[in-house]
């Protein structure tokens, strides 16, 4: 991407990049990206904080189930979220009277729906382990609940809040499927603009310039967020505090959590209801049509065949992400003997986290322009899409495995080695017993992410081997009631598959997953 942007004809030419960045449309796209991501981040934090408190500090019946339900939107395919909000806010939808379909408000609502779980889980995990005694002491001295929260609790939670907000902002700024589905080309972000420049205008230099700019901005934001989170966390080495019963001052937080749960359920329920509506009333016609190619040959292959392709791709992407993530985890958590070695491991850890903030579209575009010529020409390879999806899932795998590996006492490995165990035997007897649950959880998240990945796959999937998210986007782009009904049905199938995987992973109760 750097070479294509700055050396388009083999000679250094930064003028092309500057010309792209000076375009008025690029300015509008960049501004919309920043303010929509900022608004969605603010709303996610405001809505997620009460739920984080209620679900992690209060003994509410069924709170584990509610946690899992709020986590499902985060792993739903972005194109499914977009379709669900179109069905909810469209003219014939339950909230169609608000006239929000195709507006920035719809985009921001979709982004909040998708990302509020990050705040709930990350801040809730920190809140769960805060020592309650400083707050109780402040209350005993006459502080009101709001004063206790503002002067005691919030400062202690700042690292977790800043970390969650930075991740949410990155996810919102690099959102693709939601913006493309709800905003089209009228409300474009940097993400969708790269896609438009590549697939429609064939302006690869401009797309490369925006991709490089996005990569630089994301790197700076990640470094800034890391510095802001570097404040000592008072809950870092403290056991989880037992949840207490609900008191009168807690009622607003519990009520806000209930409202948030309803807000999360509404788009999904509307999507399911829409998939069951046919021209003759209620029925399963839309699901039966998934074995066809739709009206007027909208698809080259049926949705059922695309589902098989998605499952095969997800299996390949999962084992790739697990294998590479395990290697990265072992490398960055092994004991460093020198300061230089410690710095190298830290840089490697940050490097392999870049796909968390770098857009999947940027990754897909990079693959498109890199792996298209000998000696590495993967354009027609069935492994191209799984490799890209494995990179997208890699940060989640690494962030799940690394804390567990770092928490294993290295003296146990040394003791095993002194008794004659080989490094592989030590890995199996010391590391594996502590690691198997996080590995299963990481594989579940990687599988779910691969099933719903749309950004990179939109660039790389062949027309004869599309995945389900690609097929859904093609269906909503072709007119016809049957095509739209098939898109709704396919979205429900895909959402159900990812939800089942996430709920199964949630039952493992792996603490590191909660912090993403």
Structural features, described:
β1 (277-278) and β2 form a beta hairpin. Helix content is 71%, strand content 2%. The chain folds into two domains: 1-275, MetI-like (MetI-like fold, Orthogonal Bundle); 286-516, MetI-like (MetI-like fold), CATH 1.10.3720.10. It contains 23 helices and four strands. 45% of the residues are buried. Belongs to the binding-protein-dependent transport system permease family.
Terminal Cα separation, in Å?
28 Å
**DSSP, total strands:** 4
CATH topology title of the largest domain: MetI-like fold
Tell me the number of helical segments per DSSP (H or I, 4 or more residues long). 23
Kindly report the average pLDDT value. Answer: 81
- What is the helix/strand order? HHHHHHHHHHHHEEHHHHHEEHHHHHH
Task: Decide which structural class fits the backbone.
Answer: mainly alpha
| Tally of distinct domains | 2
CATH architecture heading of the largest domain: Orthogonal Bundle
Strand order of the largest sheet: 1-2
CATH first level of the largest domain: Mainly Alpha
């Amino acid at each position: 991407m750097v070479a294509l942007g700055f050396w388009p004809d083999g000679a250094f030419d930064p003028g092309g990049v500057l010309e792209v960045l000076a375009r008025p449309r690029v300015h509008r796209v960049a501004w919309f990206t920043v303010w929509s991501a900022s608004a969605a981040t603010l709303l996610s934090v405001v809505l997620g904080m009460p739920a984080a408190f209620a679900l992690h500090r209060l003994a509410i019946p069924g709170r584990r189930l509610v946690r899992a339900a709020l986590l499902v939107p985060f792993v739903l395919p972005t194109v499914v979220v977009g379709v669900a909000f179109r069905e909810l806010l469209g003219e014939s939808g339950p909230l169609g009277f608000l006239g929000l379909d195709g507006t920035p408000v719809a985009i921001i609502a979709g982004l909040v729906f998708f990302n509020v779980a990050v705040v709930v889980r990350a801040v809730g995990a920190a809140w769960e382990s805060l020592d309650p005694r400083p707050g109780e002491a402040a209350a005993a001295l006459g502080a009101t609940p709001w004063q206790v929260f503002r002067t005691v609790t919030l400062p202690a939670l700042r690292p977790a809040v800043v970390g969650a907000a930075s991740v949410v902002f990155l996810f919102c700024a690099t959102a693709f499927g939601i913006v493309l589905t709800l905003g089209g080309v009228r409300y474009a972000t940097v993400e969708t603009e790269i896609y438009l420049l590549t697939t429609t205008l064939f302006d690869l230099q401009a797309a490369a310039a925006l991709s490089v700019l996005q990569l630089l901005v994301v790197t700076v934001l990640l470094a800034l967020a890391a510095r802001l989170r570097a404040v000592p966390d008072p809950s870092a080495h403290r056991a989880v505090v037992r949840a207490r019963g609900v008191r009168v001052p807690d009622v607003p937080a519990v009520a806000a959590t209930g409202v948030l749960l309803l807000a999360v359920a509404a788009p999904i329920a509307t999507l399911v209801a829409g998939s069951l509506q046919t021209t003759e009333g209620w029925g399963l016609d839309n699901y039966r049509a998934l074995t066809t190619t739709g009206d007027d040959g909208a698809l080259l292959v049926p949705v059922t065949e695309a589902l098989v392709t998605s499952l095969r791709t997800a299996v390949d992407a999962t084992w790739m992400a697990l294998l590479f993530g395990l290697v990265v985890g072992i490398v960055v958590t092994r004991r460093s003997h020198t300061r230089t070695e410690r710095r190298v491991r830290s840089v490697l850890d940050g490097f392999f986290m870049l796909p968390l903030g770098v857009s999947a579209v940027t990754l897909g575009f990079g693959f498109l322009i890199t792996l298209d010529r000998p000696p590495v020409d993967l354009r027609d390879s069935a492994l191209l899409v799984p490799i890209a999806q494995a990179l997208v899932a890699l940060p989640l795998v690494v962030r799940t495995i690394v804390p567990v590996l770092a928490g294993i006492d290295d003296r146990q490995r040394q003791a095993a080695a002194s008794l004659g165990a080989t490094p592989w035997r030590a890995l199996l007897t010391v590391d594996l017993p502590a690691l198997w649950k996080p590995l299963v959880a990481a594989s579940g998240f990687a599988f779910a992410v691969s099933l719903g990945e749309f950004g990179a796959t939109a660039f790389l999937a062949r027309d004869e081997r599309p995945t389900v998210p690609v097929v859904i986007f093609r269906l909503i782009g072709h007119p016809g009631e049957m095509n739209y009904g098939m898109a709704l049905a396919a979205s429900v199938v895909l959402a159900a598959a990812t939800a089942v995987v996430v709920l199964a992973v949630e039952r493992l109760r792996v603490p590191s997953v909660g912090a993403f």
